[in-house]
Amino acid sequence: MSFDGAAISGVVVEFVKVAREFARRGHRVRLDLGYDIKADKHRFFRPYDGEADLLPDWVTLDRVADLHTVPGYDQDFVARVLSEVVAAGDEALLPRVRRVAEAVADRIVATWEECGVTLVVVENGTLPENITYTTALYLAIERYGARHRLGRFVFWRDHDLMWQSEPGTGKYGAFPHPTTPRPRDSQHIHYFALHEHALRRTREWVPGLRNISVLPNTFTHAPARVDGRNARFRADFGIPAGAALLARFTRIIPQKRVDRDLHLLAGLLARGVDAVLFVAGDPTESAPEQARLVALAEELGVRERVVFGGRLAPYDSPGDRYSVRDLLAHADLALFLTSYDYESYGNPVGEAIASGTPYAASRYELYDAVYGGLGFRAPLLDVTAHDLPTDAFVAEVAELITDRERWNAVMTHNHRLGAGHFGQDRVGEAVARLFPAPMGARTRLSVVLPVFNEAAHLERVLAGLRDQRGPGGPLDRELFEVVVVDNNSTDDTAAITRRFAEAHPDLAVHLITEAEQGVSCARRAGMDFAVHRSRARPFADPDERCYLVSADADCVVDPDWLWELFSAMESSKAAIGVCDYYYTAEHFAGRPRLWDAIQRTLRCRVVAWSVFGGFPDGKGFAVEREAYAAVGGIEVFYQVQDGRFVNHLSDDWDFGIKVRSSGHDIAYAPRSRVEINPRRVNHALEEVITGRAYGNDGIIVMRDIRVEDPAPARDSDLTPAEARQAWEFSIKDFTPKNVVLPVLLTPALLEEQRVVDFFGADLAARLRDRIAEIRDEMRVVDFTPIHAYKTPSYRLYLEFREELFAVLRRTVGEDIGSPPPLPECLREVPEERFAEFVRYYCEDRESGEAHNHFGNGGVF
């Protein structure tokens, strides 16, 4: 449904791009051009004529039936409401608006029922040309969605919100537009704004609106070329072969300011530049404006150098008619000298960039928000200071179209930049993420793989997932799927994923994107995507559990990793299943001290996780879908680093804490194994041996371990002192998190026999009592989530450290040794006040001393 009320416009073209993604999935596509919505187009109730010829053959033109039978709903009424209610603020007509909207909603729903509509795309729906229809559409959406138990089935994109479209005319009144139906926080609708500016303004208008994101207009980035199809374009329109061709494709209405193009042409000709202006647009839309432009061309003496070429087919039209793309194939420069406050996006600029044609534009109100702020290069006319092209502007345009070296540099720069920001893939990714196809009936596991510039390793990782095995051979590929989350990669990560999916159609591989940088954000996006799809599984047994599985693009999973994890989850009915992790000894040949420190940590983990169940690690864990949803999914926390917010990297552990503290069980699957990439240790080794790995002072950061350092990685063994420091760093991080934390979160574990046997009855009882005291003491303190578990864990560790290490020596091995030395500030504290000062030490997050002492990352 287009609210533009035009046969072909930028709004309709964008609809086609979105609809194409649904057509590829097998949807039948119907388009209502909105003739019965906007009064100022003067097409109210007009039948369609040749409009279908301008659209792909898979689009069926349609419209809501019997709107002309709604009492009082006509062009005059819509025009009155716009002028009296919206613009002037007179609410006298509002009761009639509501009555008419109810009747219009009935007809919308009836039409959707007759067509069997399963998804609705609304383009430009919040433009208040017709608040009666907008009100009716919201009513219809809620009725139809409830009747058919639909979830999010409406894709609603606003191209021209009130503050962006012709504000200078006063046509839509003043912000905050009290009579205009505002976007609703509906379970059935996801809204899209064209850019961050529009998103911010929308949220100012409707605080708390949740289901909204940015989806820019997109374009097919392929250079437009002169070929057999369009070779005669210049000849057919009488354009001399050697003349520079200026292209303007637009609606011929006053707001578009085609008069500026005529003045520019006159200036170029005066400078001796042989040029022709081609104006592509419907000359009948505004006959007075067309006549004015012809007269102006005569007055300026350029009439013979102007071609009014009529309406061309849309940019990507598959038909035989000449299209905008054919014009751009021959053009030397695209022009967009529009009114300052008229355009919100400026599609012609995007289409020129996509075609490999330089452009010149006015610096209209949102130009910088859409293009200029991203670094595109073009001559720009400052229309706040100069209404018509200046001599300097004409000179800059002349230089661009006559200096081919500069012309090529600008074209190449803009084309490459545009593909990243406005590539057609962005539509497909938005559709796939927000309106995903249902999961297969037999699919039980979704493997989520966050990736950022992993082109060098990704194919091997995907192959390892494809080649998973079960008890009788290759694992049934209908049992699982892979969700690759591209987190702003600048290499071939996305292309490799697509090629792999095409080459292996027996395995479902989905590619989605996450714009906010950070593995935590990417993992959350992938798991949320999988939850949404899994709930649409056909013929699903309500007792059948579905699992979300985290994997890491720089680690290698064993062939039976997924099956063993799945089996452990099915048999234990736990909420989370965690894998075993290991390093390969050959990677540490010649470094026995380092290998010893690593192995002691891994041996401790095997013992502790066998007793307590462990905690999830992003390298490989599974969570049952409903448990994931029950705790609110993965939560991304933020910290301030160097004056800026950064997302916290321990989302896997923090998520496990949420699950465990909510009363759910965690199962350890020791036969589900993942090999850790040794570069993780090599990259952070210098920080490990100085006790500062993964950041300090409360900030958890991880440098990009894929980037090769200028100096070669350290391959020599640790000195005895360095080995001791590395081990102490690792065990100080391990013990509070893996031995203390489980019983702190779930004190009932201290009643279970395996846990009592591990600690010993006396220590288990004293831990239980002390945990009760600390939990009661801290119950009203508002700790931020990132630190909520650290303070009590650190306190318990310091109070019971000697006994805890005695347990580790007994259960893991004597080589575990004694606890690392106390922090210097605690060494001289009187014994009777030790627990008191431990509390101050651990709660002093201003200094971060406790955080730095205990470390950050469980490095080994």
Task: Please provide a written account of the structure.
Helix 3 crosses helix 4 (131-147), helix 7 runs parallel beside helix 8 (287-300) and helix 19 (592-612) runs parallel beside helix 23 (720-745). 42% of the residues lie in helices and 13% in strands. Helix 7 (258-270) links the parallel strand 7 (244-249) and strand 8. The chain has 29 helices and 24 strands. The chain is an alpha/beta fold. It has four domains: 10-214, no CATH class; 233-422, Rossmann fold (3-Layer(aba) Sandwich); 436-688, Spore Coat Polysaccharide Biosynthesis Protein SpsA, Chain A (Alpha-Beta Complex), CATH 3.90.550; 722-854, no CATH class.
Tally of separate domains: 4
Any idea of the CATH topology of the largest domain?
A: Spore Coat Polysaccharide Biosynthesis Protein SpsA, Chain A
Indicate the radius of gyration in whole angstroms: 33 Å
Q: Would you identify the CATH H-level superfamily of the largest domain?
A: Spore Coat Polysaccharide Biosynthesis Protein SpsA, Chain A
Low-confidence stretches: 703-712, 780-786
The CATH architecture term of the largest domain is Alpha-Beta Complex
Instruction: Give average pLDDT, whole number.
Output: 88
Strand order of the largest sheet: 17-16-13-18-21-20-24-19
**What percent of residues are in strands?**
5-15%
Distance between the termini: 56 Å
Q: Which CATH top level class of the largest domain fits?
A: Alpha Beta
